[in-house]
Amino acid sequence: MYYKKLIGEKCYLSPMNVDDYEKYSEWVNDMEVAAGMLFASQIVTKEKEKEILETLSREYNFAIVDIKTDQLIGNLGFPKLDYINRVAEVGLFIGNKEYWGKGYGQEALNLALDFGFSILNMHNIYLRVYSYNKPAISCYKKVGFKEAGRIREAKRIAGERYDEIIMDILEDEYESVYIKKIVSEKNF
Fold first, then answer.
1. What's the pLDDT at 65?
2. For this structure, is 140 an active site residue?
3. What angle do CA 112, 17, 129 make, to 5 degrees?
4. Rounded CA gap, 61 and 112, in Å?
5. What is the pLDDT of residue 47?
6. Closest CA to 178 of 2, 4, 1, 43
7. Residue 167, class by beta-carbon neighbours within 10 Å (0-12 exposed, 13-18 middle, 19+ buried)?
């Protein structure tokens, strides 16, 4: 069961459903999916994934769901929140490969940024990505993220070294679309 917490045109964000642990286990153990994530070297059992989802579901983490089919396609969330300095880390992955390159990640990330800036009142939202993940970097740039720095040659995979790139966006670089519309239509 999913709930439409934040709604876009292609997808919506819902609180995570712990019962999806088998689907997540499948995705995070698929090397093609996992290679783009920071924890690709881990082997995750169904039991471990269920524990992870139980923890994540208590925090600001969301399932990404196709709006037309109500099918789970991935997740995103804020693994680190610093309320004093108003800085948050965001993480995103589309586990269902049929949805890659079709704008779902971009829309989901926009929904998350709107939530992070408009509801959580963050000032800076950042993410980390490896330099070999060109599709993700392209997506992040389209949303408005800029490169803030690099940890050079931080990842060794298949005998090659790659940089870990830190990208960020500031609250005044992001224009609320979804939440601003809700508030203006309801005349709160």
1. 98
2. yes
3. 40
4. 9
5. 80
6. 4
7. buried
Predicted pLDDT at 41: 65
Rounded CA gap, 17 and 1, in Å? 7
Helix or strand run (H / E) with residue 117: helix 104-118
- Is the Cβ–Cβ distance between 148 and 92 less than 8 Å? no
Q: Is 70 part of a structural domain of the chain?
A: yes
Query: What's the pLDDT at 54?
Result: 81
Domain range enclosing 104: 6-186
| pLDDT, mean of each 10-residue run, the chain (188 residues) | 93 94 86 71 76 83 97 95 98 94 96 96 97 95 97 92 97 89 72
According to DSSP, the β-strands at 124-130 and 87-94 are parallel
Report the number of distinct structural domains present in the chain. 1
Q: What's the pLDDT score for residue 188?
A: 55
What are the phi and psi torsion angles at 88 (to 5°)? -135, 145
Position 181 scores a pLDDT of 79
* Residue 48 lies inside a defined structural domain of this protein: yes
CA distance 45 to 67: 29
1 located within any domain: no
The CATH number of residue 128's host domain is 3.40.630.30
The one catalytic residue among 104, 140, 174, 178? 140
